[in-house]
């Protein structure tokens, strides 16, 4: 079968690989019908070292179940399922807490032996991981349903762990697909003011449609000053950081209100950062977030997509066949595309 | 009058200074009847640079009101009041949110022109800052009431912002007076397991009386391993960091459970610290805390002291007159005393 491998920064290729086979009784194998490229795929696209065997890419998928292991009970051959970017048993102590990305038997598809930008995918812990899409669901809803495997629910995770609530002033840093999703989730949670910090006009335009009330294109000290002015000198109750680079984090603590919360979902490309008296501590700011616990949210979000309450699939502005995925990476890296849907 | 000044690290003296006078219509002046030395006073005691004019010390006090400004309405001459370590108007937007340490008209006594380790104290924003102790309150309760100006409610702030709840496993890092207060507050909030990390046996003994179920004397990797073992490999729901040095913070993210919370109240003696995938982000850990918003908690805690629900004044193991305050600093710095009560 064909699968996407990255061999070094900037070198993405579709190559022929062996089909996955069931490894454990809890596995399933799906034929991938929808996949996509994630903003976080651009991190290795910029920095991956020479990897002779290639790194398997992709962690978002919808597919049709083709085989199940002997102990799989809830997922059946023929089901169309959403597969989140991390697998989890959905029964361990951390899953029961809702922290499915820390599952004791879990893992992440990205870089795993089987990843989603491919014709077929091995899904470990299939009963815990895969969520069945009701039979007869319109094909036009699939892009929005695909966003429940990562991007929309990552934006949602930011807003939820940040504690966005009715009447809040929220700042979203980053106008990528996760940032725009965080805007949509914040509107859903009742935020009164949503300030989107981003400078790509086509993206911030969608941000306005998703619920942003203000756009701030400036960055750094000037961007912070503008947010402080918009908020009457007070800062934001919640800041959702959807970038992952240190300057975005610095903006976050610059605009957060005393007693407010910064929630990060952009995978941090740094380990150390300011957290002392001058940044977080002095104003009793809270720092939260992490890998989105997507699996814990899918059941609640799925009906919202089916009934049209949310349409997060609008973040896809291009569609390409799997064979042209290298072009999808290029388009997203150059900001010519917001997010590219892939049809294997 | 006599007041405590620090002139350089280790050099604390009681010297004669002018009595404070009312500066603004919102001020009051109190005669200090109880003060004390704080663990955070030991930071400048170790590191203060040569300060020829001296730095005024102390930020915890009970006193009797001697004068009030023309616009002071609620506090009256003759009242005995608790003065928190920060003053606040208690009416601004941040005070209404409960973040009294970020009051728009607020400030900190420590290092201010008038501080509490003295015979008299200028209290700015007296109506917002001072809380009246009911007339006729027994003198024996005054040490516990004095802890509401900082130490007990700082421990309480850690537990509250950390979200300690019934059944939780809580780790408290630091067996100083704030750490012990955090143990007491955690017990009050229903924590099932309270692991106190500290190695001074006289202090951890009081920690056990306050509610600690386990004591871990080891630090660093070994201390982390012990906590992980006690928690069945899972880590703690909430970690209360009451030290302020980087190794304590490193212990905190080492023992926090996925999805758990670290709450810091030890004033960080560092600005940068690990917050990336390997420390906080990967396990969706939350970092919260800051200067305790003591003023917001006093009304609720005062009756608990009066009716004997809590007895946080047990952290005072020595009492000295103001003139001997240099000895109080020495005793606390050498760990010969846990916390010293000062009678001006």
From TrEMBL, chains A, B:
Its cofactor is Zn(2+). Residues 10-342 form the Enoyl reductase (ER) domain. It comes from the Bacteria. Signal peptide: none annotated. InterPro entries: ADH-like_C (IPR013149), ADH-like_N (IPR013154), ADH_Zn_CS (IPR002328), ER (IPR020843), GroES-like_sf (IPR011032), NAD(P)-bd_dom_sf (IPR036291). Keywords: Metal-binding, Oxidoreductase, Zinc. Belongs to the zinc-containing alcohol dehydrogenase family. PANTHER family: DEHYDROGENASE, ZINC-CONTAINING, PUTATIVE (AFU_ORTHOLOGUE AFUA_2G02810)-RELATED (PTHR42813:SF2), ZINC-TYPE ALCOHOL DEHYDROGENASE-LIKE (PTHR42813). This is Alcohol dehydrogenase catalytic domain-containing protein. The lineage of its organism: Bacteria, Bacillati, Actinomycetota, Actinomycetes, Micrococcales.
């Amino acid at each position: 079968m064909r699968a996407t491998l990255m061999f070094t920064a900037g070198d993405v290729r579709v190559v022929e690989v062996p089909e996955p086979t069931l490894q454990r009784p809890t596995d399933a194998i799906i034929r991938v019908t929808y996949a996509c490229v994630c903003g976080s795929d651009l991190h290795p696209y910029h920095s991956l070292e020479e990897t002779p065997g290639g790194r398997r890419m992709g962690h978002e998928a919808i597919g049709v179940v083709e085989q199940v292991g002997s102990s799989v009970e809830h997922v059946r051959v023929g089901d169309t399922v959403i597969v989140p970017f991390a697998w989890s048993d959905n029964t361990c102590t951390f899953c029961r807490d809702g922290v499915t990305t820390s599952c004791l038997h879990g893992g992440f598809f990205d870089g795993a032996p089987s990843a989603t930008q491919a014709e077929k995918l091995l899904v470990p812990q299939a009963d815990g991981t895969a969520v069945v899409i009701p039979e007869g669901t319109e094909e036009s809803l699939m892009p929005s349903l695909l966003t429940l495997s990562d991007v929309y629910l990552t934006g949602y995770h930011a807003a939820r762990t940040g504690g966005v609530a009715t009447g809040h002033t929220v700042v979203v840093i980053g106008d990528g697909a996760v940032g725009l999703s965080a805007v949509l989730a914040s509107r859903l949670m009742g935020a009164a003011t949503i300030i989107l910090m981003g400078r790509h006009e086509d993206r911030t335009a969608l941000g306005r449609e998703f619920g942003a009330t203000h756009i701030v294109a400036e960055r750094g000290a000037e961007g912070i000053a503008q947010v402080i002015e918009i908020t009457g000198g007070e800062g934001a109750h919640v800041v959702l950081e959807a970038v992952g680079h240190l300057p975005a984090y610095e903006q976050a603590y610059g605009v957060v209100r005393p007693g407010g919360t910064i929630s990060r979902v952009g995978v941090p490309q740094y380990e150390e950062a300011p957290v002392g008296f001058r940044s977080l501590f002095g104003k009793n700011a809270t720092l939260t977030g992490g890998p989105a616990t997507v699996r814990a949210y899918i059941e609640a979000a799925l009906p919202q997509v089916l009934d049209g309450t949310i349409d997060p699939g609008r973040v896809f502005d291009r569609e390409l066949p799997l064979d042209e995925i290298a072009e999808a990476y290029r388009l997203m890296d150059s900001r010519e595309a917001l997010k590219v849907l892939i049809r294997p």
